[in-house]
Amino acid sequence: MRRLYHFALSPHCRKVRLALKEKALDFELAPIEPWAADPDFLVLNPAGEVPVLVEDDGTVLAESQAICEYLDEAYPDRPLIGFDPVHRAETRRLVAWFDLRFHADVTNYLVGEKVIKRLKGEGYPESAVIRAGQHNIRYHLDYVSFLSERRNWLAGEEFSLADIAASAQIACVDYLGAIPWDDFPLARDWYARIKSRPTFRSLLADQVRGLPPPKHYADLDF
Ligand SMILES: N[C@@H](CCC(=O)N[C@@H](CS)C(=O)NCC(=O)O)C(=O)O
């Protein structure tokens, strides 16, 4: 069986999980805390990072975008990276925006400080770091609102990996109850549409030890 090594609140892992689900590919999840630097895991990915996907035939893939590009090429039935060169370029631009910028500006501050620091035993969250994440998220939700007001989905008319990358980041932050949804109704409408996709269900059932999500997290009408 295809296996995905993952950490539940890793947005890059959630991105690959969603891509696999959208492509209706079967897989099992292998939870891992990558910072434990398990030697067996380092053999799979010397970078020591999740996600890592191991195909049925033993092929090992690492790095979320490399995995998603591979999935779109190897299983082209339900394309996620666009239908023409312009849509593909726009999808990739936005995927990079959320994977890198949103992650560095928001998720890394909030999930990193509130969850991963604790799991690593590195002490208590610093309020200045959390404030920075909460400040930055407003710019990103403005941008999601701007895009979703002009387009059906973030990269254009069709649902794409851009929506997956964005919702993977946002879902991790929403798990902490840190999204000011009331101030961003357009972003909320877009996220509600993603949340109601059957492919999103398993993410909404995730639980991190010692940290239950807020009630609205799994609620489709939030
Ligand atoms: N560029 C990588 C980033 C992956 C990444 O940052 N993974 C984090 C979890 S979100 C990780 O495994 N960190 C290892 C650690 O904290 O030691 C990708 O897209 O796959």
TrEMBL record:
GO biological process: glutathione metabolic process
EC number annotated for this UniProt entry: 2.5.1.18
Biological source species: Oceanibacterium hippocampi
Pfam family, one: GST_N_3
Keyword Transferase carried by entry: yes
CDD domains per the UniProt record, alphabetical: GST_C_family (cd00299), GST_N_family (cd00570)
PANTHER family: GLUTATHIONE S TRANSFERASE D10, ISOFORM A-RELATED (PTHR43969)
Positions in coiled-coil regions: none
Single annotated GO MF: glutathione transferase activity
UniProt entry tagged with the keyword Flavoprotein: no
SUPFAM superfamilies per record: GST C-terminal domain-like, Thioredoxin-like
Residue ranges of every copy of the GST C-terminal domain listed in the record: 84-214
The GST N-terminal domain, residue ranges: 1-79
InterPro entries in the record: Glutathione-S-Trfase_C-like, Glutathione-S-Trfase_C_sf, Glutathione_S-Trfase, Glutathione_S-Trfase_N, GST_C, Thioredoxin-like_sf
Protein name stated in the entry: Glutathione S-transferase GST-6.0
Keywords, sorted A to Z: Transferase
Subunit structure: Homodimer.
